[in-house]
UniProtKB/TrEMBL annotation:
<dbReference type="GO" id="GO:0046872">
    <property type="term" value="F:metal ion binding"/>
</dbReference>
<dbReference type="InterPro" id="IPR001915">
    <property type="entry name" value="Peptidase_M48"/>
</dbReference>
<protein>
    <recommendedName>
        <fullName>Peptidase M48 domain-containing protein</fullName>
    </recommendedName>
</protein>
<keyword id="KW-0645">Protease</keyword>
<keyword id="KW-0378">Hydrolase</keyword>
<keyword id="KW-0862">Zinc</keyword>
<dbReference type="Pfam" id="PF01435">
    <property type="entry name" value="Peptidase_M48"/>
</dbReference>
<comment type="similarity">
    <text>Belongs to the peptidase M48 family.</text>
</comment>
<dbReference type="GO" id="GO:0004222">
    <property type="term" value="F:metalloendopeptidase activity"/>
</dbReference>
<keyword id="KW-0482">Metalloprotease</keyword>
<dbReference type="GO" id="GO:0006508">
    <property type="term" value="P:proteolysis"/>
</dbReference>
<keyword id="KW-0479">Metal-binding</keyword>
<feature type="domain" description="Peptidase M48">
    <location>
        <begin position="144"/>
        <end position="276"/>
    </location>
</feature>
Length: 300
């Protein structure tokens, strides 16, 4: 008769392993719960969509880093220019946009074209652009101040986010990616691989969406006639970043001047290349349209 030798205390499983296994099992059970997934997705969607309903609320301005910003008077020439450009890129009811400037923000737009008529929208812009708008032309080169074409491109870019309802896309994509990742985790037997796939699905998906929306906003601004301003704006940023890299000696800025820590925006070099293609494509469109008009006239 074979007798199993008793296990010594030293052979027992460590407590931390047991606790980890129990925690993973508990989390897996919670993640598989349809109620938990549905409630989490609904909460995330409400959190992301609230700024669309209340564009000028404290929560919305905090997300845009615009708590220190102040609203411009409607008759301010800078605000008038913003609304003109917004109408040019396709924003409905541009008079419903609240124009704000602040020191902390790098530029953000809150709201959507579908709701701007009832709920309004908000564009928060850096004070640097506001000061540059009123600066005399001879100071732009001397102090490396953004020029008028660069300012107009930034305004068109932020307005394009509203015109294309980008806030609605970002608000809906996060809960959808959460549900998709939970389903993938449930289907994959290996929980380590499942966890990696789930995280990559959420982070990578939102990363891809953010870059796609930024490229689309650049494209809308370029098609509205602001491509050259965008190229000049991004090239000036590259020059600034290269100067910072030489001073700080940091790996967060590559040799070409791309700031690698900004994961929500595409690389500046890629944005410049796309804008150059769009800028060179504009004359071609004009030539084609003029030739077509001539042919139609001859036909009649």
């Amino acid at each position: 008769m074979r007798v199993t030798p008793p296990q010594m205390p030293g052979d027992a499983e460590p407590i931390w392993k047991s606790a980890t296994r129990a925690a993973i099992k508990l989390m897996s059970t919670a993640l598989y719960s349809k109620r938990f997934i549905g409630a989490s997705a609904l909460f995330i969607y409400g959190y992301a969509s609230y700024p669309i309903a209340e564009p000028t609320s404290t929560h919305s301005l905090r997300l845009a880093q615009g708590l220190d910003s102040h609203e411009l008077d409607r008759k301010d020439p800078f605000a008038v220019n913003v609304r003109k450009i917004a109408a040019r890129v396709g924003v409905k009811n541009p008079e419903r946009i609240s124009i704000r400037v602040g020191e902390e923000t790098a530029g953000a737009s809150i709201g959507a074209n579908l709701t701007v008529g009832r709920r309004g929208a908000c564009i928060v812009l850096p004070m640097e652009l506001y000061d540059a708008f009123y600066a005399p032309s001879h100071l732009h080169e001397k102090y490396d101040i953004p020029k008028r074409d660069e300012i107009d491109f930034v305004l068109a870019h932020e307005s394009a986010h509203i015109a294309k309802n980008h806030s609605m896309y970002t608000g809906a994509f996060l809960p959808v990616s959460l549900i998709g990742s939970c389903v993938a985790i449930h289907k994959i037997p290996n929980k380590l691989i499942a966890g990696i796939v789930g995280v990559l699905g959420i982070v990578g998906g939102n990363w891809y969406l953010s870059w796609s929306l930024e490229h689309e906003a650049d494209e809308v601004a370029a098609e509205s006639g602001f491509a050259r301003g965008g190229i000049n704006c991004f090239q000036r940023r590259l020059s600034r970043n290269c100067e910072m890299r030489s001073v700080l000696n940091t790996w967060m800025i590559d040799e070409r001047g791309n700031y690698l820590a900004d994961t929500s925006h595409p690389l500046l070099t890629s944005r410049i290349e796309r804008l150059k293609l769009l800028a060179t494509a504009d004359p071609v469109k004009l030539i084609v349209s003029s030739d077509t008009a001539t042919d139609e006239a001859e036909a009649y």
